[in-house]
Amino acid sequence: MNRSDWEALTSLPLYVWISIFAALLAQSTWLFIDATRHGRSRWFWGLWGLIQVPTPLLVYWLWQAWERRRDRRA
Questions:
Q1: CA dist 43 to 23, 50, 54, Å?
Q2: Pick from 17, 46, 55, 69: CA 20 to 30 A from residue 62's CA?
Q3: Selection from 2-6, 39-43, 56-60 with the highest mean pLDDT
Q4: Domain total of the chain
Q5: Could you tell me if residue 9 is inside a domain?
Q6: Which residues of 10-42 are buried (b: 16+ CB within 10 A; e: fewer)?
Q7: 10-48 pLDDT, tens per residue?
Q8: Residue 32 in contact with residue 46, Cβ under 8 Å?
Q9: DSSP state, 40?
Q10: 14-37 and 55-73 are packed helices; what angle lies between their axes, rounded to 10 degrees?
Q11: Residues of the domain holding 28
Q12: Residue 32 to residues 1, 39, 55, 62, 64, Cα–Cα distance (Å)
């Protein structure tokens, strides 16, 4: 990370940082609770949800759809 990248990050308003934090926390909480309900790796999904938005959520939904489809075939 060079100096201009750092300056760009520090120039973001506080409400942007709060929004990012809220989105990460909400996503992580939802993934953890839903994975617990379905007997999946809840800690994996919860921690991955804290790292980035929205990729873990999209992957989880695709994974769930694949699992449901696989279960219907069996």
A1: 18, 11, 17
A2: 17
A3: 56-60
A4: 1
A5: no
A6: eeeeeeeeeeeeeebeebbeebbebbeeeeeeb
A7: 888 999 999 999 999 999 999 999 999 998 899 999 999
A8: yes
A9: S
A10: 20
A11: 15-73
A12: 32, 10, 15, 16, 14
